[in-house]
Amino acid sequence: MIAVLGAGVMGTGIATLAVGHGLAVTLVDIDADKLAAAKDAVRHQLRGAKLMGRMPRSGPTGELTCTTSLADVAGATSVIEAVTELPELKAKVLAEVSALVEPGTLILTNTSAIPVDELASSTVRPEDVAGAHFMNPPYLIRMVEVIRGPRTGDAAMDAARSLLDSLDHDHVTVGDGPGFVINRILQRTINEAARIVEEGLASPAEVDALFEGCLGHRTGPLATADLIGLDNVADSLRVLRDRTGDAGYAPCELLLAKVRDGDFGRKTGRGFYEHGGQS
């Protein structure tokens, strides 16, 4: 059984990925309403991924169990933490789960920007902790950025690679540090793109069209930000600013204003773009 901690966008997506490959998943969140919504979302996402050919169409589907009790994951073979990108909250959850599971149980943090070793410091056994930065949506995007912290053990790295192989996902292992590779680059790009819009130099659609047409990106930085969630982008930027000391990571005012207004992107129906059919 795989334990997934957090029933937000990423936790739900990771649960979809795992059950779609026949693995039993226990999904944990303190919010019972969020868990109920996650159950429906997993069903919907699984159906869509199979229709798109991104998930096995035959074979068993893993059982999904939803619970508000962290104690229910004590027997997990692997743990994937995907709670909100707040260092104190992640550290608290990781500390609690590491005290519950057996020694040697793989604990993966799906942090977007917080150094893995910083989070591992809160756990009972830092050698069991590694990073697995899944892209959104994880059941469609096959590449995973795996982060090896300075105290991550060989056994944990082997277990992480084996788990990702069982999920039919590619992976690249990188070193530890704020933002790792993807978000150290991407979040700065999103922030600068938002500043350009704020300064009136170009619209979101014009910025993204240039990235798509000139650089071959499938989506531009601001459409990507809407997919990630502007609240998550702002949180990641703060982590990067605080841990690098680089003022260029300070979230720009336009981004902060959208977050204050509750315009987080696709999950709320509005961000840099309008997204029909979202609530």
How much of the polypeptide forms β-strand, as a percent range? 5-15%
Number of domains: 2
What average pLDDT do the residues reach?
A: 96
| CATH fold type of the largest domain | Rossmann fold
For the biggest β-sheet, the strand order reads 3-2-1-4-5-6-7-8
What's the helix-strand series? Answer: EHEHEEHEHEEHEHHHHH
The gyration radius over C-alpha positions equals 18 Å
CATH architecture grouping of the largest domain:
3-Layer(aba) Sandwich
Measure the end-to-end span. 32 Å
Shape: globular
How large is the count of helical segments?
10
Number of strands: 8
Largest sheet: 8 strands, mixed
CATH superfamily of the largest domain: NAD(P)-binding Rossmann-like Domain
Helical residues, percent: 40-55%
Supply the helix-strand structural class: alpha/beta
Which parts are unreliable, with pLDDT below 50 for 5 consecutive residues or more? none
Assigned CATH class of the largest domain:
Alpha Beta
SSE layout:
Layout lengths: L1 E4 L3 H12 L4 E4 L3 H20 L12 E4 L10 E4 L5 H14 L5 E4 L6 H5 L8 E6 L8 E6 L5 H13 L3 E6 L6 H17 L5 H12 L5 H8 L1 H15 L8 H8 L19
Parallel strand pairs: 1-2, 1-4, 2-3, 4-5, 5-6, 7-8
Antiparallel strand pairs: 6-7
Describe the structure.
The mean pLDDT is 96. The chain contains ten helices and eight strands. It has an eight-stranded mixed beta sheet, sandwiched between helices. With 279 residues, it is an alpha/beta fold. Strand 4 (78-81), helix 3 (87-100) and strand 5 form a beta-alpha-beta unit. It has helices at residues 9-20, 32-51, 87-100, 116-120, 154-166, 182-198, 204-215, 221-228, 230-244, 253-260, and strands at residues 2-5, 25-28, 64-67, 78-81, 106-109, 129-134, 143-148, 170-175. The chain folds into two domains: 2-175, Rossmann fold; 183-260, N-(1-d-carboxylethyl)-l-norvaline Dehydrogenase, domain 2. The protein starts with a strand and ends in a 19-residue tail after the last helix.
